Amino acid sequence: MTNSLNVAPAMVVETPTKRAPSALLRGLFQNPAATIGATLLVLIILVAVLAPYLGTLDPTAIDPASRNALPGSVSTLDNGVGGERSYTHWMGTDSLGRDIYSRVLYGGRVSLIVGLSVATLSLGFGLLIGLVAGYVRWVDAVVMRIMDGLMAIPSILLAIALVSLSSAGLGNVVVAITIPEIPRVVRLVRAIVLSARQEPYVEAAISVGTRTPMILFRHILPNTIAPLIVQGTYVFGSAILLEAILSFLGAGTPPEHPTWGNIIADGRALFRIYPHTLLFPGIFLALTVLGVNLLGDQLRDTLDPRLAKRI
Amino acid sequence: MAAFVIRRILATIPVLGMVAVIVFLILRLTPGDPATLLAGDNATLAQIEEIRRHLGLDRSIVVQFVSWIGHLLRGDFGESFFFKMPVAALIADRIQPTLSLALMTLIFTIVIAVPMGVIAANRRGTWVDHAVMTFSVGGFSIPVFVLGYLLIYVFAIRLNWFPVQGFKSFDAGIRPFLSHLLLPSLTLSVVYIALVARIARASVIEVLNEDYIRTAYSKGLTNRVVLTQHALRNAAIPIVTVIGMGVALLIGGAVVIESVYNIPGLGRLTVDAVLSRDYPTIQAMVLLFSFIYVMINMLVDLSYAVLDPRIRY
User: Fold this and answer.
1) Is pTM, for the whole model, over 0.95?
2) Contact A101, A56 (CB under 8 A)
3) Comparing C-alpha atoms, which of A38, A20, A43, A81 is closest to residue A283?
4) Interface residue B22 vs chain A (CB under 8 A)
5) In chain A, what residues touch B144 (CB-CB under 8 Å)?
6) What ipTM was estimated for this complex?
7) Best mutation site among B141, B150, B294 for testing chain A: the one with the most A CBs within 10 Å?
8) What is the pLDDT of residues B147-197, one digit of tens each?
9) In angstroms, rounded to a whole number, what is the distance separating the alpha carbons of residues B3 and B10?
């Protein structure tokens, strides 16, 4: 091999391309998949936030007179001031006469809250643990053994085992879904820290006597942001899915709570005759996760091209 | 090579040990007292005390852990609170449906996903490729229980091609066995296929850029031979790896799918145990599934040396 060939790679040192956030966004939405994903998510968020204004009824109100009504059927309800008012059940009613349209819309709130809380908590804890583990050797040895153990337990199993310990409530469900997600974040952050601490600017910071917390948060942490955003989208999606699975299995929030999983669980018994009780929450759930996945894939390709190449 | 195999087998011990510690602590964190729970509502304090001594709960936590591990190693998973029988016997009763479901899903996945990925890579950028990638994103997004009910509704209720739910043991004849198993395995394999096809496509694309692929084409080999014998062979390691990692999806999916299709397997047992707070059974199931997952990934690692003779340990 000639000398010039040996030298050549050094001349084309890849400089990390610094692009303005607006340029990144433009790049992101050049792809129709990202646009579709973002649109789906915005719609779901709007529907969830505006649920009280979208002609919904009380999602937990039971109406024995109109059980298992088909989509589009009309029932009359007491309007509270002595008169009656008729309502159209756009998506029918369930086995207790609750309006599925209202339950699906309010269910969106639960799903989004769970997705957001799990993503925030697992990224927060994962980042903190990963930063320390990547930088402090003895912590690394201990923490990574624990993480390996946690990762060896399939996440659905770990989550339902954790839920079985406590009374079913939204908070406990969030914790049970967060714990299996944390090791994946820790592994990601740790890997980034390990490679960043070899960088000249970190060595320079150490040599001028910068204190460790400062090095971690000022110099190393920024490297983790782009991969964490990508990871966060996937955690958000899988948390929504896992919450629905827990509710569906009867191990999630109490059955009267309007969550997509609970609505589907309620419709199971009679789904041969009334498939609509499963259909509508199922569609909303699938579209939400689809939106997250489409957006996540494009975010990964835009923000983290190295990862994109590997997958 | 032998040294590598032994090292890799030994490496699973700390992981499994940690899993055991976590699973043990999960039971210890139970807010209620297992002895009180087991004794029922009408028990006297003396009876509860007796059960506590019987379970060894009056001893220190370290002693309990060591004795628990000792029992595990002898195949004793304890006694189910709910079924009042040894958990090991429960597992033996329920293993056939889950094993059949898992194997059939694995077969579907490999037979469908690998060719899908190879063809998509070969026709990169064409409509075939787009179709495979769309299927992949869709397969990831549709929740397994929603898909399950959708397939039951269309193929079992509307078209009447398959029995609606349930499971028939292999002893009942091959036809009823397969007809009950086909729909659940297909449902379960969709997300798995989505995962494997995507990785297969990506790794074949990467291999297709290699010089030896150009050489293979230039010496006049057909596209088919180049793809299957040169490209796929060299792309095998990431594909096998993702199949191994996907076993976690398979296990989680089995827990859900057995509830959807009313299959009396280990997944269903796990859910029932969670709903009835049957802690010994929950503990055993989490341990068993994690053990299987760790073992499969160990086998995947060992297979690297077979798949790629350049890998020497």
Assistant:
1) no
2) yes
3) A43
4) yes
5) 245
6) 0.85
7) B141
8) 998 898 888 888 888 787 778 777 777 788 788 888 999 999 999 999 999
9) 10
